[in-house]
Amino acid sequence: MIKVLLVDDHEMVRIGVSAYLSIQPDIEVVGEAENGAKGVELALSLRPDIILMDLVMDQMDGIEATKKIIEQWPTAKIIIVTSFLDDDKVYPALEAGATSYILKTSTADEIAEAIRTTYKGQSVLEPEVTGKMMEGMRKRQTPILHDQLTNREFEILLLIAEGKTNQEIAEELFIGLKTVKTHVSNILSKLEIQDRTQAAIYAFKNHLVEK
Where 4-aspartylphosphate occurs along the chain (predicted)? Predict the structure, then answer.
């Protein structure tokens, strides 16, 4: 039997999920908690195979509860069951140690299957969650080069994109021509490009200025 702990602040949700899981031949609900604090207490005392964890709860939310459980029981298998797909919920929950992340819109059969899959040591993620993770990985793998620019260099990059010459930039910013050339050289180096035309293209492609 797969022993499951339910942690959710909505009694009707707990009743509904518990009733469905109770008729599964291989799943047994061993405890219920109405908030994160109680969830941590029961998780560490009952040591269930799977913890179904809500995110938004009184006293202690699901992210904090997950952290506390994992800190004391690193091998705990926690499935986040929530209505939220916001980045400030998904990433912290997974970073806290949650194994799987599913939505409350999932069918009862899908929740039961997620329990079985997670019990076997595999992760179950909503397609939207997987998409967010892949996008996050792409962003981390592709650094935003213009974040390296100083405020002055960024200002000059925008003026280059507007088609300003070095002399015009110097006059507009009240700085010397030699200083402008030094800034331009730094900009090209940091953006890993060869000339001013590529700098302008970079600014447009990254939506730093409007065409």
Answer: 54
Q: Which residues pair with 4 in a beta bridge?
A: 29, 50
208 burial via Cβ count (<10 Å: 0-12, 13-18, 19+): middle
Cβ atoms within 10 Å of 58's Cβ, excluding its own:
10
| Residues contacting 54, CB < 8 A, separation 6+ | 7, 8, 9, 10, 13, 62, 80, 81, 82
Q: Place 85 in a pLDDT band, splitting at 50, 70 and 90.
A: confident
Contact 50, 7 (CB under 8 A): no
User: What does pTM read for this prediction?
Assistant: 0.63
CA separation, residue 200 to residues 47, 147, 207 (Å): 59, 16, 11
Q: Residue 86, class by beta-carbon neighbours within 10 Å (0-12 exposed, 13-18 middle, 19+ buried)?
A: exposed
Q: Please state, in angstroms and as integers, the Cα–Cα distance from residue 20 to each residue in 98, 124, 140, 144, following that order.
A: 23, 20, 41, 48
The pLDDT tens digits for 115-173 are 999 999 998 887 776 666 656 555 555 567 888 899 999 999 999 998 899 999 999 99
Question: Please, what are the domains in the chain?
Answer: 2-140 (3.40.50.2300), 145-205 (1.10.10.10)
Tally Cβ neighbours within 10 Å of residue 147: 8
